[in-house]
Amino acid sequence: MSCRRCARRATADLCEALRRSKGNVAAACMASHNRTDFYELLRRHGLPPPT
């Protein structure tokens, strides 16, 4: 799998976790990351943090 494909998949997974939790950072638990790592992943993939 290419790096771009992996990045797209990771971004899609983060978006899906946020959608399922209605923007709640509890999505971090669903994505198996702690809150700090989750926010870092959002930043790395160019996604805004939930408000």
What secondary-structure arrangement, pairings included, does this model have?
Layout: H1 3-20, H2 27-30, H3 35-44
Task: Report a brief summary of the structure.
With 51 residues, the protein is mainly α.
Polypeptide structure, described:
The structure is a single chain. The protein is mostly helical and about 50 residues long. The protein has one domain (about 5-45). It is about 65% helix and about 0% strand. It contains 3 helices and no strands. The chain has helices spanning about 5-20, 25-30, 35-45. The longest helix is centred in the N-terminal third of the chain and has 18 residues, at about 5-20.
Distance between the termini: 33 Å
Largest sheet: none
Tell me the domain tally. Answer: 1
3D shape: globular
Strand content: under 5%
The count of helical stretches stands at 3
List keywords for this structure.
mainly alpha, 51 residues, 63% helix
